[in-house]
Specification:
The complex is a heterodimer. Chain A is mostly helical. Chain A is built from 27 helices and six strands. The two termini of chain A are about 30 Å apart. Classes of the chains: A mainly alpha, B alpha/beta. Chain B: Pfam families: DUF1501.
């Protein structure tokens, strides 16, 4: 172990991982993670069963549990490489792009987006985002597209911060660079090297952006335009600010770097009368947006690559090596600094290929541990047991559909009753306290316990799970396989098989008791979490 | 590295030990005692009732200060309503608040609110959290804070109940444990709180559910699984305690006093819930957003507001509960002194009014002053943070209590907020 640690250190320090000497990054992950177990004298959990891996990978990579048929296909497959096969198949699945787009849309906008009258309905942006993930557009290129906002449908990120360059500064730093700047908005940072000047220097890149609205039939279409003049005004510490106080203009400055070198405007320059412009505005004399985009997404930016690697890691492993994922700063040390550094370099070499990164993490030993064990933490810091995270509202809705056979009964791509979907988004939308600690509210249980929506999904209809089970000729003991595989993606234990069989057959009309059994499985904690 | 203090192990243990009437199985899984689950009022009697409580009467849309408690008769901004004297010298109130005039000695009227968020979404957020919406830190709304600090997780009833038009900011960084439990605007329970299946079916399927959980818990000890089970137990406890939401004959006797309106019934429901130990109830009243026909709208609203609010204060007082129950009357904004060309008043945040009663606040006073037309605050301006610091002080909550959002410290009120000490008796 000592030797391998040493090797890793050399690899990382040397940073010339060329040719055949290059260790596979998965090997680096496994070595680094197990090295800390040894150091901390931790006993890692056993490897996850095939069934547990299957469910986890489906939820992480396509955002829903597998169907009965998908589960059987994987579990019955005797190929040694079936996990790698499965992961490749899921990454290429259209549902993967949809799931990633949902995750990032939520990071960009949250459940309560700013500028809601424009951003609440953002179908075009979501569609555009799905397309990016479907084409596996490299992360740096994707962020560039969002910031430049020149593609049809891509403008919504800026629209959220219409006329609010300071708010956007906070968001850009938090989301794309994993850094927190909001404190510097009102005062120099007490324990980090961030000043208010840094903050307003960043806002200076955004202050000239303008949101223009176009009507296309019934739709509102958004365009991002840029003026050639205009500065952010800085008034000093917020606590000392006076009403009506005029600030002094601040030139744009890269965070922790240089002031922007910018050509002077020609002396006779006048901004066009934008109000009268019907069409696209002329390009600015000099585009600050362009400069910001280049700087922010550069591999040389010390935060950009690390931030995304850490975020993807957290998405899959439950907890970022830097935790929380949007607080990269020298005071907040990474749990596995060498590994984070190695992954960051590797990701640049891979040209920001998100699927490649996910593939390596999901196929690592650390990802593939069991969730069983005595440790009570949801997200073990040393990754010595699988994390336990709640399904998002979207994952839960999709998984309930898969498990109950909703689409088989109602028709492919049938919509959930909109009331059910909107209730569920509301009730399951924010499952934790912001620090990742799960607190399922009472509301979600009242909904699952009493609401007619879940009962409606379970109720026997031609083609759905209840119906299939009721019309199966096999003895009930055997039918339990399908019941458990469809809902919990695993075979029942002996005692579960016995108990559930007895329960279903205790009634003259097994339909009732069968539906109750499905209810118990779907409202159980094992279904509620990705573990 | 800064450590989160949101949930200490001690707090956690405490919470688990709350589940009286439940059995601990060999595997450590809590299993509610069945006799209790479908039995009588369960834990209510054992619930240690918390003393400090708060009722927020939320004037959705923003009530007009000039047509209620800061009238400017004879001025161009005054409008057509006449002031009437109240029980308190120097506090004239609108002619459509005659019942409130009679108990004005229970009111502390703050005429000098000077706030920052002039729109509805941002105003509702700001006046529920005392922080600007644009900060994007998920601040908890006031009900969640009070639920956390004055509530009791052991209680069958939720600690934060709301009804009517109030906005819904949510518990923010405090998490879903302190989520609002929203009931219908007339105070009746939402559909989901009513059992969806027959009791015998509920009983048997619950037993099956518990079997499944117990099997799983043998090998899986992670906290989220346990939290899921605990929340489910809380949901069942709430269903058992739901008669607290059924006013029955009491309402028939009271509806003439409170006014037979959603808001009137809501206020009476709030009284009942506070009596049952719920620490925070919010009752919303629509709709004050009178950009047109301000006076028609306010006259109608006040005729609902006056009987409900005054009866609530009188009943709290008669039960000896007013001392420990703070009643807050406010909305997200005030209204413009200028009357627009549709006989309306628009949003105004530079000088407006809210009112407090009970909770250790000295009644019968007016705090702050506006100029003769009500355009500017001329004495003792009050910010959102100052108001919240005052409310928290009344409830015994440290208004500078530090929490963590991620690693970052965040306080219940912004830096520089001070309680209005003069208001306290």
């Amino acid at each position: 172990m000592l030797v391998s640690c040493f090797c890793l250190a050399t690899l990382v320090l040397g940073s010339t991982l060329a040719g055949k000497e290059k260790a596979s990054i998965r090997g680096v992950i496994d070595r680094e993670i197990s090295a800390t177990w040894k150091k901390k004298e931790l006993k890692a959990a056993a490897p996850a069963t095939e069934a547990a891996f299957l469910r986890r990978a489906y939820l992480d990579l396509v955002g829903m549990v597998p169907t009965y048929a998908e589960a059987r296909a994987f579990l019955d497959d005797e190929d040694k490489d079936k996990r790698a096969k499965l992961v490749d198949q899921l990454l290429a699945d259209e549902r993967h792009a949809r799931h990633q787009a949902e995750i990032w849309d939520l990071i960009f906008f949250t459940r309560n987006p700013a500028n809601p009258s424009a951003t609440r309905k953002r179908g075009r942006f979501q569609e555009w985002l799905r397309k990016q993930f479907k084409e596996n557009v490299p992360w740096d290129a994707l962020v560039q597209k969002i910031l430049l906002a020149e593609e049809e449908g891509s403008a919504m990120f800026h629209v959220q911060y219409r006329n609010k360059p300071e708010d956007e500064t906070v968001a850009l730093n938090r989301i794309f660079l994993g850094t927190q700047l909001q404190c510097a908005r009102c005062h120099d940072h007490p324990y980090e090297e961030r000043t208010q000047r840094d903050f307003y220097g960043m806002a200076g890149f955004l202050v000239r952006l303008s949101v223009r609205e176009e009507k296309q039939g019934k739709d509102r279409v958004w365009r991002i335009e840029e003026k050639s003049s205009g500065e952010v005004l800085f008034t000093g510490a917020a606590a000392e600010a006076q009403p009506g106080q005029k600030g002094e203009p601040v030139s744009p400055k890269f965070l922790g770097g240089e002031e922007l070198e910018e050509p002077e405007l020609p002396e006779d320059f006048k901004e066009p009368d934008y109000k009268k412009l019907k069409e696209a505005w002329p390009k600015p004399v000099f585009s600050r947006k362009q400069k910001l985009t280049e700087w922010l997404t550069s591999a040389k930016n010390p935060f950009f690559t690390k931030a995304i690697v850490n975020r993807v890691w957290a998405q899959l492993m439950g907890r970022g090596m830097v935790h929380p994922v949007d607080d990269l700063n020298p005071e907040n040390e990474a749990s596995h600094p060498a590994l984070l550094e190695a992954l960051t370099q590797w990701f640049v070499e891979q040209k920001y290929d998100l699927r490649a990164l996910m593939r390596e993490i999901v196929l690592s030993d650390a990802y593939s541990l069991a969730s069983a064990g005595e440790d009570t933490t949801a997200f073990p810091k040393w990754y010595d047991r699988a994390r336990v995270r709640p399904l998002s509202a979207e994952e839960l809705i999709a998984s309930l559909r898969v498990a109950t056979g909703f689409d088989e009964a109602v028709g492919k791509d049938a919509k959930m009753p909109s009331s059910a979907s909107s209730y569920m988004l509301k009730i399951f939308g924010k499952p934790n306290d912001g620090q990742g600690r799960f607190q399922g509210g009472v509301d979600e249980h009242l909904f699952l316990n009493n609401g007619s929506q879940l009962r409606g999904m379970i109720r026997s209809k031609e083609g759905n799970l209840s119906h299939l089970l009721l019309n199966d000729e096999a003895p009930w003991e055997e039918r339990m396989d399908r019941l458990f595989l469809s809902t919990l993606t695993r075979y029942p234990t002996d005692s579960e098989r016995k108990k559930f069989t007895a329960y279903v057959t205790s009634n003259e009309k097994p339909q009732e008791t069968l539906e109750e059994s499905i209810w118990a499985l779907l409202t159980s904690s094992q279904f509620r979490f990705n573990h | 590295m800064t450590k989160s203090t949101l949930c200490t192990p001690a707090e956690h243990l405490h919470r688990r030990s709350f589940l009286k009437g439940t059995l601990l199985t060999g595997t450590g899984l809590t299993v509610a005692n069945f006799g209790n689950l479908f039995g009588s009022k369960a834990l209510a009697a054992e619930t240690q009732k918390q003393k400090k409580r708060c009722i927020l009467l939320w004037m959705n849309g923003g009530a007009s200060q000039l047509d209620t408690f800061d009238m400017k008769p004879g001025r161009p901004t005054g409008g057509p309503f006449r002031p009437i004297p109240s029980k308190v010298d120097g506090l004239e109130v609108c002619e459509y608040l005659p019942k409130m005039a009679k108990i004005a000695d229970k009111l502390a009227v703050i005429r000098s609110m000077k706030t920052q968020s002039p729109g509805h979404p941002d105003g509702i957020y700001h006046m529920h959290t005392c922080y600007k919406m644009s900060e994007r830190t998920p601040h908890p709304e006031i009900g969640a804070v009070i639920a956390k600090y004055c509530g009791n997780m052991d209680a069958d009833l939720p600690s934060f109940v709301r009804m009517g038009p109030t906005g819904n900011t949510g518990p923010g960084y405090l998490g879903p444990d302190y989520s609002p439990f929203s009931i219908k605007r007339d105070g009746k329970l939402p559909n989901f709180a009513n059992g969806g299946v027959k009791p015998e079916v509920e009983e048997r399927r619950t037993e099956l559910y518990r079997f499944l959980e117990e099997e799983f818990a043998k090998s899986h000890a992670a906290e989220p699984f346990e939290n899921h089970r605990l929340s489910k137990e809380r949901a069942w406890r709430l269903m058992r305690a739901k008669e607290a939401f059924s006013l029955g004959d009491d309402w028939e006797k009271q509806k003439d006093r409170y006014g037979d309106t959603n808001f009137g019934r809501g206020c009476f429901q709030a009284l009942k819930l506070i009596e049952e130990g719920v620490p925070f109830v919010e009752v919303g009243h629509d709709n004050y957003d009178s950009h047109a026909n301000n006076f028609v709208c306010h006259k109608a609203n006040m005729q609902q507001l006056d009987p409900a609010w005054s009866s609530l204060l009188i009943d709290l007082d008669q039960r000896g509960m007013l001392e420990d129950t703070l009643v807050v009357w406010m909305g997200e904004v005030g209204r413009t002194p200028k009357i627009n060309n549709r006989a309306g008043r628009d949003h105004y945040v530079k000088a407006w009014t809210i009112a407090l009663s009970g909770g250790g606040i000295q009644g019968g006073q007016v705090y702050g002053k506006t100029d003769e037309d009500g355009r500017e605050v001329t004495e003792d301006p009050v910010s959102e943070g100052d108001l919240f610091a005052t409310i928290y002080k009344s409830l015994g909550i440290n208004h500078r209590k530090k929490h963590y959002w991620g690693q970052r410290p965040v306080w219940l009120t912004p830096e520089g907020s001070k309680p209005l000490d003069k208001l306290f008796a």
